[in-house]
Design a protein that fits this description.
- This protein is of the alpha+beta class.
- Helix content is 28%, strand content 23%.
- The chain has one domain: Chorismate synthase AroC (Chorismate synthase, AroC fold).
- It starts with a strand and ends in a 7-residue tail after the last helix.
- It binds flavin mononucleotide.
């Protein structure tokens, strides 16, 4: 379904080449000031990197319904972003010949010819602009609780950032370039990797590491609505996400308990962990350490290179080279989308857990 959340609920609507995309957000407490500068900043982080991304460039400033003097009233907010840059003809052939790696074929099986295939319809990465706008609104909500969420690109194809950074370093440095790399050298190497795939008519995947600091210990609703479970569900809704690992993740399976356990120490009267293999979550609840997880984005499915597909109408094999506007790498743009989903989950759990008041 198209609704996520419990205390705060978000319902997504629209499609890539429909008149608009948007969402309804219900449950944000009354009296909270919405800062349009944060929305503009976060939407800019989702824009394609100059010279390498899709040339589809729309202003993407959302219309917001439901505020009084810039503040929430307790009523739902409606966010609406107009679609102005639409080229339906790019997608005609995809009804007949589905793109390998995209949602075209399963959507055809599920919805038949009723599916809006233009621009990928509701399976388009464009839908994430709305999620980012919603996340930006709630980013300021979290700030009031001293919670910050950030991310950076830790891998593009074969270019890997092996350094470990503090949350403060990530929050300070990761938004300084379009690829969300932590250093200028890595940004150059990642850009080369993307341009090399693009030159081949191909695409490349990447990994985003997301961190959040300031979470109150105990945040999360076990047994089933755990902090990691809720984040995983929200992040897996982002198109192109294929994996998530919290803290040491899969590597923990190769460790001994003595190595994996994050020892406790008292520091300035507070409980601290000496390491963070748990990624800040134990038993589905925040443990007071920073939340840290990595998200794998696959390579963009729509590529110019010829691929094997089928002609669904003729029932024959076919070849497809995708035309139109497509990013050779979606991971850096996906970073702020991952942040937005994380922010949403934390805000929802803060209210559910009684850390923030509901109306
Ligand atoms: C910000 C963003 C931009 C995207 N841009 C494209 C694109 O230009 N072309 C494309 O084929 N897929 C793009 N995608 C990914 C597809 O929407 C996604 O791969 C597809 O819906 C299939 O879903 P799945 O990969 O999650 O299985 C984008 C995803 C995101 C998050």
């Amino acid at each position: 379904m198209n609704t996520i959340g419990n205390a705060i609920r978000l319902t997504l609507f629209g499609a890539s080449h429909d008149t608009c995309i948007g969402c309804v957000i219900d449950g944000i407490p009354a009296g909270f000031a919405v800062n349009t500068e944060t929305i503009t900043r976060d939407l800019a982080l989702r824009k394609p990197a100059p010279g390498i991304g899709t040339p589809r460039a729309e202003p993407d400033i959302p219309e917001i319904v439901g505020l009084l003097d810039g503040k929430t009233t307790g009523a739902p907010l409606v966010l609406r972003i107009e679609n102005t840059n639409i080229r339906d003809s790019d997608y005609d052939e995809l009804r007949r010949v589905p793109r390998p790696g995209h949602a075209d074929y399963p959507a055809y099986c599920k919805y038949g010819l009723s599916h809006d295939i233009r621009g990928g319809g509701m399976f388009s990465g464009r839908m994430t602009a709305v999620l980012v706008a919603a996340g930006a609104i709630l980013r300021d909500f979290l700030s009031a609780f001293g919670i910050s969420v950030g991310s950076y690109t830790s891998r593009i194809g074969s270019v890997v950032d092996t350094a470990s950074y503090s949350a403060e370093e990530i929050l300070a440095r990761s938004t300084t370039n379009a690829l969300r790399a932590m250093t200028p050298e890595l940004e150059d190497a990642m850009r080369c990797e993307i341009l090399s795939a693009k030159a081949d008519g191909d695409s490349v995947g990447g990994v985003i590491r997301c961190v959040a600091c300031g979470l109150p210990a105990g945040l999360g609703e076990p047994f089933f609505d755990t902090l990691d479970g809720e984040i995983a569900k929200a992040v897996f809704a982002v198109p192109g996400v294929k994996g998530i690992e919290f803290g040491a993740g899969f590597a923990a399976s190769a460790m001994r308990g003595s190595e994996n356990n994050d020892s406790y120490r008292m520091a300035d009267g507070a409980v601290r962990t000496e390491t963070n293999n748990a990624g800040g979550i134990l038993g589905g609840m925040a443990n007071g350490a920073e939340l840290s997880f990595a998200v794998a984005f696959k390579p963009t499915p729509s590529i110019a290179k010829a691929q094997d597909s089928v002609d669904l109408f003729a029932g024959t094999d076919a070849e497809l080279a995708v035309r139109g506007r497509h990013d050779p790498c979606i991971a850096p743009r996906g970073a702020v989308v991952v942040e937005a989903m994380t922010i949403f989950v934390i805000a929802d759990l803060l209210i559910r857990g009684g850390f923030a008041c509901r109306n």
